[in-house]
Design goal:
Elements lengths: L20 E10 L6 E11 L4 E5 L6 H8 L7 E6 L2 E2 L5 H11 E4 L11 H12 L5 H13 L15 H13 L5 E5 L7 H18 L2 E5 L3 H4 L4 E6 L2 E7 L3 H18 L5 H8 L2
Parallel strand pairs: 3-8, 3-9, 6-7, 7-8
Antiparallel strand pairs: 1-2, 1-4, 4-5, 9-10
Helix pairs in contact: 3-5, 8-9
Bound molecules: adenosine-5'-triphosphate and magnesium ion (MG).
Length: 280
């Protein structure tokens, strides 16, 4: 079915760099008093360097909040987040901006494309901000992103002239253009048809396998999660399970176990029990 001609990624500047992403007792509380929402609740998790991890869990369970904390886009209430040896939670604004620019790519749930720029300008923005003039290598990488994501004929259009799926693909190209160590993707295939979705997921998986990138992706789709090396389940702001080498079936079983535990013991089911129950 997939007619894409295989092109190897490897280029001289894409040497393997691996960074582990870690959270230690990481918490985020929104609001205070009776209205406080514990969106991320004392999370301890390590995302292996050079691996593709999917995060799954019910709507409102804290997936986006956790990713924002790990990417330095939101400030934690307590606890620590690390990228490699760098403690993100202790950085000032300036260092954070630099870290996000040089080492992190982010695909937002809501795209966040700049409306006044064309698709191509949006894609190239991270390189522009880094002040680096794209060399032959960077341009070849851009061409590969554009062709894999089938954006060739939409490059001169503004986001308002693109479909949801096209905007999402522009956002993915933008996240990958500077070849960041870590890519956080919040439902990157949520707006894509199954064929484009599969192409994007294969592409993400290849960038892990062949370029040694670390990818952390939120998804609601067990078939998408099965592209990952591992699935981390989140419920109620806590880690609730861990599935190695996921298949659509094992992911569905994990989600079912999570659901029945929540039904059995209410929304505050013990995270430890859940983890044991859904472990493959
Ligand atoms: N800025 C905010 N102010 C107050 N509460 C917030 C804010 N952002 C998120 N929340 C709350 O934190 C909790 C976690 O939200 P989050 O967006 O992380 O969930 P999610 O797992 O990504 O859900 P979805 O699958 O629907 O995207 C929710 O209860 C949400 O209402
Ligand atoms: Mg979300």
């Amino acid at each position: 079915m997939d007619t894409t001609v295989y092109q190897p990624f490897a280029t001289p500047t894409s040497a393997r760099r691996t960074e582990t992403v870690r959270a230690r007792a990481l918490s985020k509380v929104y609001g205070n008093g009776a209205a406080a929402v514990r969106a991320v609740d004392a999370v301890d998790v390590t995302f292996t360097a050079g691996a593709f991890t999917a995060i799954m869990g019910p709507s409102g369970s804290g997936k986006s909040t956790l990713m924002h904390l790990l990417a330095g886009l939101d400030t934690a209430t307590s606890g620590q987040a690390f990228l490699g040896d760098t403690e993100i939670t202790s950085l000032g604004d300036r260092e954070l901006t630099q870290l996000r620019r040089d080492r992190i790519g982010f695909v937002f749930q809501s795209f966040n494309l700049l409306p006044m720029f064309t698709a191509e300008q949006n894609i190239m923005l991270p390189l522009e901000l880094a002040g680096s003039r794209p060399d032959t290598d960077a341009l070849a990488w851009k061409d590969l992103l554009v062709s894999t994501l089938a954006l060739g004929d939409r490059l001169q259009h503004r986001p308002s002239e693109l479909s949801g799926g096209q905007q999402q693909r522009v956002a993915i190209a933008r996240a990958l253009i500077a070849r960041p160590d870590v890519v956080f993707a919040d439902e990157p295939t949520g707006n894509l048809d199954s064929r484009s979705g599969a192409e994007v997921l294969s592409f993400l998986r290849r960038s892990v396998r062949e370029l040694g990138r670390t990818i952390i992706m939120v998804t609601h789709d067990p078939a998408a999660a099965a592209y990952a090396d591992r699935v981390v389940l989140i419920a109620d702001g806590r880690i609730a399970g861990d599935i190695a080498d996921p298949t659509p079936e094992s992911v569905l079983a994990g989600l079912d176990a999570l659901r029945s535990l929540e039904l059995a013991s209410g929304p505050h089911a013990s995270a430890t029990t859940s983890a044991t129950a859904v472990r493959d």
